Amino acid sequence: MAVVVIRLHTQTMGWRWERCKPHSGFRTGVFRALISADSSGVAPIVPSPWKDIHSYGKGGTLKGSTFSWLGLIPLLFMFLVTWPLVCSYIFLNLFFFFPCHYHTRQHQHYTYRSFRRQETALTTMEEINPLPANYHQALKLIDEAHAQDPRSVERESGSVPFELDYARHMTRWLALREPGASPVLQLACRAQHFRRWEIPRSSYPMTRPGYLTWRAKLKSQAAKQVAELLGDASIQPPLSQEEIDRVAALVRKEDLKTDSDTQVLEDVACLVFLDEQFDDFEKRPDIDEEKMVGILRKTWGKMSPSGHALALQMHLSERAKILIEKALGV
Hints:
This is Glutamyl-tRNA synthetase. InterPro entries: DUF4202 (IPR025255). Pfam families: DUF4202. Keywords: Membrane, Transmembrane, Transmembrane helix. This protein is mainly alpha-helical. The protein folds into 2 domains: about 1-65, no CATH class; about 115-330. About 55% of the residues lie in helices and about 5% in strands. It has helices spanning about 70-120, 125-130, 135-145, 160-175, 185-190, 210-230, 240-250, 260-280, 290-300, 305-310, 320-330; strands spanning about 5-10, 15-20, 150-155, 160. A two-stranded antiparallel sheet has the order 1-2. Strands 3-4 form a two-stranded antiparallel ribbon. The chain is elongated and about 105 Å long. About 20% of the residues are buried.
C-alpha cells in the first residue's frame, strides 16, 4: 500500500502530495505524513521527522530514512496554535450564535403564526359578539349591497367584490380592537365605504380641496343610504329610529375626539389601510416617499393608543416598516 507524503515548500508555501511505494523501513499499509522544506537542493529549513527525505530509490522508494523527533516540533506548534481557535469557534457557535439566531427566528415565527391565527379565527360577525336576529338581517342586507361592487379582488376562495372584501376586513379588525363591540358599532363598521364605487375620485378636482369635498360627500351619502337600508321592512323586529340614527352618525364619523365608538371605528379603518391597502397605495405613481410619510403621519395621528398597539404588532412589509419609522421619527 502506498505511503502519502505531504511536502511543504518554503518558496511556494504550498502543499504537495506524493505517493511512494512501501519500503522495508515502513509499516506496510500505514499512511505517514512527512513535512519537509525543499529549496532546490538546499538542506530543509524546517526539520523533518524523516532524515534524508530527498533520497529516492528506483521506482520512487525511500532509502535510508531514519526518524527524528525534532521534526514533530512544528506539528506540535501548529496544533497548540490552532486548537484553541477551533475550540473557541465551536463554543461560540454552539452556545451563543446558534441559540440567539434560533430563539430570534422562533420568536418571529411564533408572533407571525399567533397573529395569523387571530386573523383567520375572527372573520365573521358572530365570532366577535353574537348579534340579535334583526341586526344579523341588517348585516346581510349590507353585504348584499357590497356584493354589487363591479370591482373585485382575488382571494384564496376566488374573486370577491372589492367592498365586500373590505367590509370583512373591517369586521376582523374590529374583533381585535374591540371584541365586545355593540351591535350598532358592528353594523357601522360593516357599512364603511358603503356603495363608494358610485362616487369615483375622478368626479372631483384632483386637488386638496377637491379631495376633502369628495370625502365629505362619500360620508354623507353612505350614511344616508345605510339609514334607508336599515329601515327596510324585511328587518324584523325593525330597528328603532334611534338605532338607525346612531349607525348613520358613526358612518359619518361624528365627534371623533369625544365619542369612543367613533374612535374605535377610526382605529379599525386605519388598521385595515395599513394591513391591506398600504403596499398598493404606496406603489401609485402619484405618491412619492415624502407624500407617503406625510399620509402615514396623519393616519397615526388619528389613532388611539390601543390602535397604535395593534398597528405595531402587525405583520408589515419591510418597506412599510421603514416608512412608518420615518413618519414617527424613530
